[in-house]
Description:
The structure holds 2 protein chains of 2 kinds. Chain A is an alpha+beta fold. Chain A has 5 helices and 6 strands; from the N terminus they run αααββββαββα. Chain A folds into 2 domains: 28-80; 85-167, PH-domain like (Roll), CATH 2.30.29.30. In chain A, 46% of the residues lie in helices and 24% in strands. In chain A, the strands form 2 sheets. Chain A has a 3-stranded antiparallel sheet with strand order 1-2-3. A 3-stranded antiparallel sheet of chain A has the order 4-5-6. In chain B, the strands form 5 sheets. Chain B has a 7-stranded antiparallel sheet. In chain B, strands 7-8-9-10 form a 4-stranded antiparallel sheet. In chain B, helix 2 runs antiparallel to helix 3 (42-66). The two termini of chain B are 32 Å apart. The interface between A and B is large, with 52 and 63 residues. Strand 3 (102-108) of chain A pairs antiparallel with strand 18 of chain B.
Amino acid sequence: MTDPTMTNPENIDAYYDDHALNPIDPRYIPVTRITSAIMMLFPIVGAGVLEFTISPIPGIFILPILLIAAYFVFAVPARKYRRWGYHMGADRLRIISGYLFHSDTIVPFGRIQHIDVEQGPVQRPYGLATLTVYTAGNHNSAVSLPCLSHEDALAMREAIRAHIKRDLH
Amino acid sequence: METEAGRKLSLTGLLVGFIAGLPQLFFPILAVLYGAGNSDRGLLLMPVLIFGLLAASLLFRWISWMRFAYYVGHEDIRIESGLLNRSARSIPYERIQDVGIEQKPLARLFGLSEVKLETGSGSGDEAKLSYVTMIEAERLRALVRAHKSGVIVVPSPANAAAETERDDAAPPIFAMNIARVLTLGFYSFSLVILAILGGLAQQFDFLLSFDLYDIDAWRDSAKNNGYVIDAVSRCARIFAGVAALFGLIVIGFATGIIRTFLREYGFRLDVSPRGFRRRRGLLTLTDVVMPIHRVQAATIYTGPIRKRRGWHGLKFISLAGDSDKAQKGDSNHIVAPLANLAEIERILTAAKIDPAGPDVIFLRGRPAWWLVQLMAAGLVIIAGIIALIVAADAGWKAMLLLALLPLALGSAFLQWRFSLYAVDGDNLLVCGGWWQQRMTIAPQIKIQTAEISQGPVARFFGLCKIHFGIAGGTLSISALCISEARLIAAQVIEQVAALDYSKISAPKI
């Protein structure tokens, strides 16, 4: 299934940009908000304790931490969400992600060793799941796509598995 | 598609796991004993706390047992687990390299065993069923073998002596005589022993009966022996300096030669039916087999001095050598420590990797990539100067730090000059390092994934880096512009996607 435009230097950007990327589920934003908030709870509690015990000026510990927490909980998830995208090709999975550090990863189905569909405690009430594919490479040995609807994730797993099976015959 | 009903692990196995896990509870129990010992009602609390700890451990094991199920399907084995984090793993039969059945003494007592489904995935995070009955383990293994029939290799009877005899009879593909080993030792100049001795002296100087660095004590000692040291003349100082330098050089070469001699003595590489077989070592002889189909890429490396004599080294990037557990962590796949290019070419050909011909066109990355690094180094130096002037009141002397700038410039220039890449036919070639130079040759079909990554600074300059996933190693090309990177990734993946990994990685029958 070689695409003639694929290896032509003139068309390469067009080829990449033409393949419309699917967004992940928009409920990624609330899920990430909740997990970030839980993660930030630890430094907030720590800063609170310092605030009550040794703080010389009121707010010197708690305020910066609260600002950082607010940034991670309210600003970052939506920006990260906009960067996520994936494309299921006939024989490969492309995943792009990253708000500050962009990454654009292609995993050919033929290199996938096994597949996980995982539901975290925060994802479960939303009916979301994370699809992770494992390869034998040291770099990118596990490539994850978070917050797909659970049915989509299962369907993608079936599609990839079917491809691995078909490829052998 | 239909699968049979989910199967649970053996309930007896829960008990076995609990007993086998008891040593892990040793420290918590110790903590309880310590804590209770400090309290007034310690004797009363102790049994209660220990019992609670054991009960909690058993409860957690029971919960995870309850939530664990595996399904044997037509095309894959699925494992569902986890209480809060529900995970459903699918392992297609085609990807299972090996079914390991392990029986620890305690498990054997109950007729149980641990089943490991090995897929050769890079993360080592594979599927484990602990514990199932021995009958079930055998059934699973037979099932997987049946599904994979045609791809299974029956391990030949381990007739090691006959194998060695046969290998010894044939000429090796590469071997090093004593002269070659000594030459390699000469290039392996190392002062690491001084660091070790220095560290030891610092750690254990309390064992010495005198203070090593007390000049007066040395003077007294000289006096006691009938000499008087008043001053040390310039001539004596220069002499001492030269002697010290000479001593360092002798120590450095001696360390290199002795270490190399111990490790590489009798180096011999054979091509046996099982793959490359490497034997070496003087006191501890090591014998490693690397199956040819598991070689993912090769790296030719050399140093600045040995390169002038045409000496290079060759190592393989490979999945773990034998299926042997002991060698799984052994990532050292050096197949020729010191060889000329003709010898290296012979080994590469045997490994089914095309050696790079002279007509390969190498390309360089964009210089802007290293300019950015240079600018970052410049900023650090300027910040250092300001800090010295403000904080340490160093005055104009702080400007001496500017001398570092040419060094950074030279290093950036050399890195740019020596970073090369080529997409040549079926191979991907990447060179790097100006002091320790290396060139990695990777057949494109052995590549697993391609990732184009871009940090905030690189994005500003429109540059990026490609990481290729290979089994057992890493391979990356930096300083590309996006279109170049996309083209390379597309070309490689186009080759890769056409072939299934289990076909290129499985041994040919």
